[in-house]
Design a protein that fits this description.
Elements: H1 2-25, H2 32-39, H3 43-49, H4 53-69, H5 82-93, H6 97-101, H7 104-111, H8 118-144, H9 153-171, H10 177-195
Helix pairs in contact: 1-2, 1-4, 2-3, 4-8, 5-8, 8-9, 9-10
């Protein structure tokens, strides 16, 4: 068991270095040799943990998607109160946490692989489906608690997901900080409109 945990720790260390180099130089320009040089180890050691570069890229995508999940993580203290839980998720989604958690260029570089690699497509789809379902469950709880007035919970969750996907792709192109913040607030307002709040103050506060 100790050997397995040591192996996983070593793999994670390699992935983190891969992430840092790919963020700086681009995914396509980051080789196993460059990762090994950065870590001051023999490239064969990386091959010991990852069969090839493709396997290493899958590990990187898992790492990025795990970071993506943190946007939807709710504090333990808020899980009992459905309104506060959904408020935390909405505030996290439409915040600068995205920029702190992962690099847009690297995220979309990996995302582009979904069009040609079935395994990567499956990884992204499974994660996004599970997060959409999680968002839907919080919307359902708020609806049952009388906080929201939505006819179709699944459609509301889906519409917010579509909004998020389009919003952040566009925001990745915006370089002006003031414009970025203004658009972020507008997108958040659109999400709140989809939720059709019965009490406007329930979910708006940060």
């Amino acid at each position: 068991m100790g050997r397995k945990s040591l192996k996983e720790a070593r793999k994670k260390e390699i992935i983190k270095v891969f992430y840092g180099l790919a963020k700086k130089h681009g995914l396509e320009n980051t080789s196993i040799a460059k990762i090994a040089a950065k870590m001051d180890i023999n490239p064969s050691l990386i091959i010991h943990y990852f069969q090839n570069r493709e396997d290493l890229v899958y590990g990187l995508i898992d790492f990025i998607l795990d970071k993506y999940k943190l946007i939807y993580k709710v504090s333990a203290a808020e899980t009992v109160d459905s309104g506060k839980a959904l408020q935390e998720i909405i505030n996290n989604i439409f915040s600068n946490k995205w920029n702190k958690l992962f690099d847009d260029g690297l995220f979309y570089g990996c995302y582009s692989m979904t069009f040609r690699d079935p395994k990567v497509r499956d990884l992204y789809k499974k994660l996004l489906d599970s997060l959409r379902s999680l968002l839907g469950s919080y919307i359902e709880r708020c609806k049952n608690d009388g906080i929201l007035d939505v006819e179709d919970v699944e459609t509301a969750a889906d519409n917010i997901f579509v909004l998020i996907d389009g919003a952040y792709f566009y925001l990745s192109l915006v370089t002006d900080k003031a414009e970025y913040e203004e658009r972020l607030l507008k997108y958040k307002a659109q999400a709140l409109k989809i939720l059709n709040l019965k009490s406007p103050v329930s979910l708006v506060a940060d």
